[in-house]
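Hi support team,

I'm filing this because I wasn't sure whether my run with zinc ion finished correctly. The job status page said complete, but I'd like someone to confirm that the output block is well-formed before I use it downstream. Pasting the exact inputs I used:
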Amino acid sequence: MTMLTPNAQRLLRALVMNGPAYRADLARTLDVSRATVTNLTSRLQADGWIEEPDHEPGLLKNLIGTSPRLGVLGSIMFLVDTCTVTLSGLDGRLLGEFTLLGSSGTSAADRMAAGADLVDRLMAEHDLPASSLRALHLAVDTQMDARSGDIYAQRASSRWFGVNPMEYFATRLGVPVYVQNSARLEGLAEYLWGTGRGHSNMLYVEVSYGVTSGHIAGGIIQSGARGGAGELGHTVYDWNGPLCTCGNAGCLMQYVSIPAVLRDYETATGVRVDWADFCALVTAEDGTATSLAKRAATVLGRILVNTCHVLDPEVVVISGQIALSLPSFVDDVATTIREHALPLVGRNVEVLRSQLADLHTATARAGIDSLRAIDEVVTAVTTI
Ligand SMILES: [Zn+2]
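And here is everything the job wrote out:
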């Protein structure tokens, strides 16, 4: 085994960052001759750092990928009652994934331990020694400091209060851990494989029990200095409005969320309904339900006028139960933005509904892609 030459290292970097490639593509990417790439790949293959994933004997064109021997990447994502783990090669090829279903009442410590056990189990199932895991992407459904892993104490974060998930996984698995909010990561999945495909600047908005958002530009989640960007649900619509779980009054999620809409329906009619009932009432053109649905879309549209003025996204993708189950919701939001945003923004921004059906799996996989876009990770895994 030999030390890697600079060109060999560049080749491995290209595979990690861009995924498996043909020799001809690698020659173009590295700006070297095909003969040089053939020599490089022969040596790297002999040393066990790369492989031909779908090798067909006699075929000249075979894809080249990194071998698990060079290392693997992990992604773990927590939502209210699920934990999804994905393992991949350094070139992004999927090795295994699994989703644990739990109850929302499980303690944070138990949830984390179950997640780490699942990583161990998937590694063992694929005959991977613990040392082959090189980096972990961790997504949690709360506000976590992306630098320190601290969870900030407030009611909205109570499920995670008192633990530091970033420290826990770094210690337990012995690898660098990179963190992101689950909702922001969902946005990246939609950007990579859903409605966002083909766009370079996307604002993702998820509207269900709360409202969250993620701004993705050039393939990177713009999550701010410490990961605190994207809390659209706690932008204030009316400082004299209903009290919010965050301590302020009149936050967007007090107007545009399933609990808020159901609360207002009960206030208006005296009848308590669940979300399925409410959707049925909208379909049946019940006056109160229809006007509450319309108001929710208008309020979200107004807030998004402000957001679009600040960010000027190419496309706004709206996801979540409210957007997906109320037929005219996304169109009503779009109409408000078009009517009230300044022309440069309002005439050009597209407002679309999300597409991804299996959001869990796609989101955990987006964690892997996030790792492959981090220069520090790419350098570490290709330095042998
Ligand atoms: Zn709030």
